[in-house]
Amino acid sequence: MFTKIDELMWKDIKFKKLSIDSKLLFIYLLSCQHRNVLGLYNLPKYYIQGDILYPIERVSKGLDELSNNGFIRYDEGSETVLVNNFLKYNPMDNINQVIGAAKVLKTIPKTPLFYNLLDNIKDSDIKRSDELSKAINKYLKANGFERVTKGLPEPMGEQEEVEVEVEEEVKEDKDPSINDSDDKPKEQKNIAIFNSWQSKEVLHQHAYLTEAIKKQLDKIAIKDVDDVIKAIDRYTDILNDDKYFYSHVWTLNVFLKQGNGYPEFLDEGKIWVAYNSKKKKKHKEINGRVGTKYVGLG
Predict the structure, then answer these.
(1) Which secondary-structure segment (H or E) carries 72?
(2) In the chain, where are the structural domains located?
(3) Average pLDDT value for residue range 159-183
(4) DSSP H helix total and E strand total for the chain
(5) In this structure, are residues 100 and 37 in contact, taking their beta carbons and an 8 Å threshold?
(6) Long-range contacts: 56-60, Cβ < 8 Å, 24+?
(7) Nearest to residue 58, comparing CAs of 28, 103, 17?
(8) Whether 235 contacts 246, CB under 8 Å
(9) Interatomic CA distance for residues 70 and 116, integer angstroms
(10) Do residues 206 and 251 touch, judged by C-beta distance below 8 A?
(11) Which of the 8 DSSP states describes residue 161?
């Protein structure tokens, strides 16, 4: 996805007054892999922490500064961010982008920031699209909002609003053994492994965390995270060692999926054992030659 970042931003008085941390954080929000064409997207703070390696307190402070200065809005409840002027500088210029935006709406969690997004859409010269109108109505109704915006003129102006009957939410008995918070450690685990992989330039770089990768990450137990990251580090070391020939290029999902993938880089893994054995042999040869040389000189 391409995002425009206006060079005039650096001349903006409010932007100039931001701390260095907040400036970097704002550029991150405009360019990170989690963003979408609407500028409203789910972004838990630990995603940011994993991507830019800031402590969580530093992340929170930066988000607060950006919010207080009108650059963004952040909904703590749904862990969702809205970049206020995103559509102003990244307008949807063709109908395909608008249709794509309609699909993106399905990924946005329930958040009051959606009303702010609607205001941004009204203020932008957006192409008329029945798909986007239907997607907006569907989102509002599905999330229990009382009013639905009808239609998207070009540009969007005053809108007729209609009352809709919202189906009463059916409350199901929940298994007490299921804990909603269980998903958070799983997501943190997935992000930690993905970011470890992406931080190694020599490895195959992924544009974003795909479903195929996520499927394999979900199979990794939390207790095994350190082993996986260790395997990634060792795979990187082997590729970077110009005295050892190993040229197999893995993608992350295959590295995790294959039996001869990450387990082979652990302590008992064949690849790691062979690599260490060759290193020790090489070290012995070098020491032997050095020793012989000194004996000869004596």
Answers:
(1) strand 72-75
(2) 7-163, 186-297
(3) 42
(4) 13, 5
(5) yes
(6) 58/21, 59/25
(7) 28
(8) no
(9) 12
(10) yes
(11) E
Supply 205's token pair: 């770089």
Residue 31 confidence (pLDDT)? 93
Which CATH architecture is the domain 7-163 placed in?
A: Orthogonal Bundle (1.10)
Supply 56's token pair. Answer: 């969580």
* Best mean pLDDT range from 68-72, 192-196, 209-213, 258-262: 68-72
What does DSSP assign to residue 154? S
Give pLDDT tens digits for 12-44. Answer: 999 999 999 999 999 999 999 999 999 999 999
Q: Element (H or E) spanning 237, and its range?
A: helix 225-240
User: What are the tokens at 232?
Assistant: 């990634």
* CA–CA–CA angle 210, 215, 217 (5° rounding): 95
- pLDDT, the chain, mean: 80
- Is 0.70 topped by the overall pTM? no
Q: Which two tokens stand for residue 140?
A: 């509002």
Tokens read off for 226: 């350190």
CB 107 within 8 A of CB 41: yes
| Cis geometry, peptide bond prior to residue 55 (ω within 30 degrees of 0) | no
How long is the chain? 298
